Amino acid sequence: MKIVILNKPYGVLSQFRPDEAHMTISDFVQDPDLRLAGRLDLDSEGLVFLTDHGGLNQFITNPANKKYKTYLVQVDGDVTEEALEQLRKGVELKDGITLPAKAEKVSEPEWLWERNPPVRYRANIPTSWVEISICEGRNRQVRRMTSAVGFPTLRLIRTQIGSIDLVSLALQPGEHVEIEPLLYPDFKDIPAEQPYRARSYVKKPGGSGGKPMPQKKNNVEKKDSEKKKSGTKRIWQMEEGEKPRRKTNGTTRPNTKSRGRRAR
User: If 0-12 CB within 10 Å is exposed, 13-18 middle and 19+ buried, where does residue 180 land?
Assistant: First the structure.
């Protein structure tokens, strides 16, 4: 299993597919075997996983595995203890209440790099920094959480996933490094990757393409053989006199119209 850690810069799309308007992950990492596990939005910065292990993304993002992701967040305004307590208890969003988060007010760190472009500055409104850890992976969740408690996010940097710490790796924006998974306890419980096994398909009889059809056993032949073994005839195997007649309660009028039916 190969794992590469990238410090994604601001304004970079979390994808390998080229984009005319923005830089992408492929501008920094060119290994064709790697896939992205744990996306970051265009306007977010920091730690992203690149791996060749197919199940790592699900393992990291599934809340049941309790793999906390830590973010350094600059918010608009001087964040209050009441707002932090709301984050710790869970915030009601449009897609439901969030799981309890870890939230603490912190000072601006010394290791922090300059963002390009810089965050807007307003002299009459202060900003503050919060460290938030969550184990969910909803779309733009941290931004929606801080906005819901009255302090919109101005800058967001993911610094940690599990025990992997971007600060300790000392990666600057755009830099990446391959790590040894065995050195991190987070990867000891990852299930072995199973190769993808496609379902068996057959094409429609006489067809040259189109949507493939699932291959099925010939149930009709199987049922026919079972009927023959049991001695029970199917209706089309019966002679005219053997076919069952419809029973009525005596009030049904006789059918005098053939309607194309075969006379009995």
Answer: exposed
Mean pLDDT of 151-159: 97
More confident residue, 258 or 28: 28
The whole-number average pLDDT for the span 71-83 is 97
Tens digits of per-residue pLDDT, 199-220? 444 444 444 444 444 555 555 5
CA angle 23, 29, 35 (to 5 degrees): 100
In the predicted structure, residue 230 carries a pLDDT above the cut 70: no
Q: Kindly report the pTM of this predicted structure.
A: 0.70
Kindly report the three-state secondary structure assignment for every residue of the chain. Answer: CCEEEEEECCCEECCCCCCCCCEEHHHCCCCCCCEEECCCCCCCEEEEEEECCCCHHHHHHCHHHCCCEEEEEEEECCCCHHHHHHHHHCCEECCEECCCCEEEEECCCCCCCCCCCCCCCCCCCCEEEEEEEECCCCCCHHHHHHHHCCCCEEEEEEEEECCEEHHHHCCCCCCEEEECHHHCHHHCCCCCCCCCCCCCEECCCCCCCCCCEECCCCHHHHHHHHHHHHCCCCHHHCCHHHCCCCCCCCCCCCCCCCCCCCCC
Q: Where are the domains of the chain?
A: 3-187, 213-242
CATH architecture of 3-187: 2-Layer Sandwich (3.30)
User: Which residues are designated catalytic?
Assistant: 41
